[in-house]
Amino acid sequence: MRRDIGGGILALVLLAGGAGTAAAQETGTPIFKAPYRAFQSHEFGASLSDPGSGVSFALEGFYRYGSGANDFSVRGGFEDLSNSVNGVKLGGGTRALLGGDFRTQVVSYSESFPLDGSLTLGFGANVGDGPDAYYIPVGVSLGRRFDVENSNTTFVPYVHPVIVPTFGGGDSEIDFALGLGVDVRFSQQWVIRASGGLGDIEGVGISIAYIR
Hints:
Elements: H1 2-17, E1 42-50, E2 55-67, E3 70-81, E4 84-85, E5 88-89, E6 94-107, E7 116-128, E8 133-135, E9 138-143, E10 146-147, E11 154-168, E12 171-185, E13 190-198, E14 204-211
Antiparallel strand pairs: 1-2, 1-14, 2-3, 3-6, 4-5, 6-7, 7-8, 7-9, 8-11, 9-11, 10-11, 11-12, 12-13, 13-14
């Protein structure tokens, strides 16, 4: 049953993704999610990203905690706007980022389906200089954990397609994103994550988290 639900959601996301391009995740930055958490109880960390044209960089802090098969997070930070886009001079400035999300596993790998999958839901705001934007991303993350023999190191490569209803600044639309990433747990307490988004915001990001 879980595999049927996850497959249906994934099909919907991929079908919609063929129709247009995307904003990124719940704060408008290209930080995506693996299909499951690396921690037992909770984690906290920071993300640095390049969200693409018009933004120099974004810096965010986050906290995530787990309960059973579910986990929840909050994140906040800011992004520094570029002084120009495609040679056009802008005023620069900063924007505040605030968001949260929920993740629950809906697919477990088996002989008939070789990946784990989770449903992700989020809500966030990107406000400040320029038009405000609000995101409600809904997606499915699919991937698989690989252990390095005789080591604490694990790798989780994944793909994370997302439908993103977006509104603010007097406009509303439904955008689409495709996130690609890998989580690398290199000790009992530390994880490094790299991800990138394809779409209107073609950016990359890296995160480091302390896990418990």
